[in-house]
Amino acid sequence: MAVCIRRIISREEQDCYLPLLLVANPSEKLVRQDLARGELHILEDKGLYISCAIVAPLNLATCELLNLATRSGYEHKGYAKVLLHYLFAIYRYSYSSMVVGTADFSNEALNLYESQGFQRIRVIENYFTDNYPYPLFDKDKTCKDLIVLERKLT
Predict the structure, then answer these.
(1) Which of 54, 143, 82, 133 is nearest to 107 (CA)?
(2) Which candidate, 135, 133, 129, places its Cα nearest to that of 145?
(3) For a Cys-Cys bond, which of 10, 39, 124, 145 suits 104, CB 3.0-4.6 Å?
(4) pLDDT digits over 36-50, tens only?
């Protein structure tokens, strides 16, 4: 796998990746808020963008992975893992840990994060019911709680 990962700074260019970002978070309003405070990274393979991630500061010691999405048809091929390892490598110079949140029924996401060294640190009850105006589903199950995981970067 010969991939290219780059940071997208231009707001106009970031808009090109909005459909992929909406795969991980269906709220355009929240995705735009994440883009405004974070950095967008794109993984490309042979000129096609495959995965993307938004990372933002949470505090002086911790950054937050706000969005991680992979293009349909390219899941389970290692692209998200490659992008995660790149993010771990570049953010370890500025932060001691990275956190990420995912839905309580997102077993694929939880498995990915835990396989990459993230550990569950807390549950935010009713996160999805309190923060979205409509029910969110993952594999036909209604998302209710947010599972927060953390990985040390040092």
Answers:
(1) 143
(2) 129
(3) 145
(4) 999 999 999 999 999
Alpha carbon separation from 126 to 17, 25, 65, 148 (Å, rounded):
29, 16, 20, 13
For the question of whether the overall pTM of this predicted structure is more than 0.90, the answer is: yes
Listed by start position, the domains of the chain span: 3-152
Strand, coil or helix: 55 = strand
Return the half-sphere exposure (C-beta side, CA atoms, 13 A cut-off) of residue 137: 3
Which burial class, exposed, middle or buried, applies to 92 when counting CB atoms under 10 A from its CB (0-12, 13-18, 19+)?
middle
Query: Any idea which residue has 């970002």 for tokens?
Result: 21
| Residue 95 and residue 83 in contact, taking contact as beta carbons nearer than 8 Å | no
CA distance 124 to 143: 12
CB atoms within 10 A of CB 46: 8
